[in-house]
Structure of Tricarboxylate transporter:
Amino acid sequence: MTLHARHLGRALAFGALLISQPLTGTAQEAFSPSQVTITVPFAEGGGSDTLVRMITPYLQKTLPGNPAMVVQNQPGGGGLPGTNTFFRSAQNDGSELLAMSSSVFMATLLRDRQVRFEVDKFTPVYLSPLGAVIYVADETGAMTGNGIEGISVPLVYGAASPTSADVLTILALDLLGLDVNPVFGTQRGAARIAFERGEFNVDHQSAAAYSSNVLPLIEAGEAIPLMSFGFADATGEIGRDPAFPEVPTFFELYEQTHGKPLDGPARTAWVALFNASISTGKALVLPQDTPAEVASAYVAALEKIFADPDFITHAKAEIGDYPQSTGEAALAQYSSATTLDEEAFAWLADWYQTKLGVALR
């Protein structure tokens, strides 16, 4: 185990002890901000921004004192500049939260040089998973239910960057033995539009975007669902995505294609990227050195929110029917999204160099 992993494990275990405490009168008194600012280091209208703006009215109603809620967008650099700034200067009295996304988790796993924060110093209080489906154009020769059989042409895929969450798709397709050629500099919405124009012949979209924008293409016979990434249960076991139970997972397709399960450092690396981009797709964290009572106030508020029928309905419409987590469950998921052992990192670094021509440090 690396020093980073050991340090992370200790920090998270300590954090679990802190925020598992019940919300007492002391905790209520400790939480005194009249205003809470949530920093979203991404543009308005994106997935993180949508999630934050969905939950802030509920936090305002359930946090002690009903503080005013302010959402502050600081887009740019894949979320890293805003996260760096928050790490350096955020107040730890409960008045500031940070929205984290898969791009930030990925940058941490891949040891991006722009990372100037210690991810294990944050205290996660809210995690929201985000499922996704990979689909291909009918011209590729694919047929529903046949896996990769019939795909006889190179696949062209629009991706944001080599260190974005899109690399999970590239890695999955490559491990299946498909000839995938990424075109970097393309965000997911633009990639879907390019797919519809015939510029790309493979794409992936999150659950909400897939349901609203891709299912019509599938119903028209213009797109074929290939696989989902799957969904991890409380034990970490990856099964079918509850939003798309009819779509096989990457692990299922891998075993169907190669006659054996994916194993070794390749599996460890893929699961780490999966945890960073799917299991912990979005998160809200408190700054380093946040008092236990303040963190407990947020956990108690979120537990009330998760039980609110109005929130359940609202969340299902906005982000899909996925379980939301706080407290110890959030800490465990957060740990899985920020840890990669040295053997798996070495394997991944070799793959990056060989497939993408990118050197990881």
Summary: Residues 288 and 359 are 31 Å apart (CA to CA).
